[in-house]
Amino acid sequence: MTDLPKLSPADVARIAGEQPEACARCAPLAFKGWESFPGSESDAGLEPVGTLWRAGEEEEPTLAEHHPQGTNYWSGDAPIALAYFPANRSQVWRCRHCGHGFLRYTEYGGYYEDRRIRSLQPALIVE
User: Fold this and answer.
1) Domain assignment of residue 1, yes or no
2) What's the rounded Cα separation, in Å, for the pair 120 and 7?
3) Does residue 2 belong to any structural domain of this protein?
4) What is the number of structural domains in the chain?
């Protein structure tokens, strides 16, 4: 999806600040922390909004994470640190029905790909 617009941190904060709470259709995907996209759910109800990084067009972003309060990758209260992994490699998506926002990225392991998703929570966004 290289045709998605590039979003600045200010764009992401604006989108997050304007979004409603997750509706019944997207609530099963509204995880507080990063989770694997549930195999039982479809992403047909979501639409891409933009990207934070363009693979092949920009320098590889850092793989360092940002957890100043002792959180970890899976923590629901971990900061959404846009300059750090994995937010820095994410795309912003929203629910087609209500407009609730999500961050999505794909984790590439040795023998697998794992689509990950997290609810876009404005109070946790940091640059």
Assistant:
1) no
2) 14
3) no
4) 1
**pLDDT of 2 strictly over 80:** no
Rounded-to-integer distance, Cα 22 and Cα 17, Å: 13
Average pLDDT over residues 55-81: 91
Sheet holding 101-108, edge to edge: 35-36, 113-119, 101-108, 91-95, 46-51
Task: Name residue 38's amino acid.
Answer: P
**Could you give the CA distance from residue 66 to residue 120 in angstroms, rounded to a whole number?**
16
This prediction has a pTM of 0.91
Tell me if 4 is assigned to some domain: no
**Domain of 24, in residue numbers:** 9-126
